[in-house]
Give the backbone structure.
Amino acid sequence: MINRKQVSRLAGVGAAATIAMGLFSTGAANADTFVPLPGGEITKTLSDGTVVTIKLVGESANINPSLGSTPVHRNAWVSGSAQVELSSDGGGKIFPGYTVGCQVNISGGGASGGVEGTADWSGDTVTGGVGATSGGNLTLGPGQSQSFYVLDQEGADDFGNETHRKRNKFSGSSGSVTWADETIGLTGCGGYAQARAFVSVEVETENVVTWVTLWGQPFSLG
């Protein structure tokens, strides 16, 4: 039996999005598989000369291919850290997340792939704020893919109403966010399933506001 309890995620520069992992035991038929992942790094020079470097480090996945005891269930716990550096003072917002696919190729872009500008979720790039949900419990059929954000920061808007933000905001020349044992739960996929991390960053300087995205390496969910 696997028992995991989610705890609140924290905001701020260097904030951590964490999940507490309880004690568990597994039999031989459904033993977890730990997969170390290489992460990635991308460097882009913006139109105003600002150099942006995004790194995905400490990335891993702990995979249980049949948590629901049927071939259409997958479950994984993923961890990693996104780090952003600017060559000059500015700031931005970090949107870490994952794309999950069922019998569909999500490998475009490579471990160091990433671009600025407009894109969609089905190809090599991500446009922040579009097409992604928060929370990693997904239902996908063959040929489908979906993306979700790791962060879900609760707060209040200007009128005191509850809001949920999917990003970690930073100012100055650097920022980061870390997550541990974030759940990916997939149902409905009878064929092969894959996932891959992304880190999409909205960079703000005195003269430029743009997006840069880093993709992690795809990995099998079983």
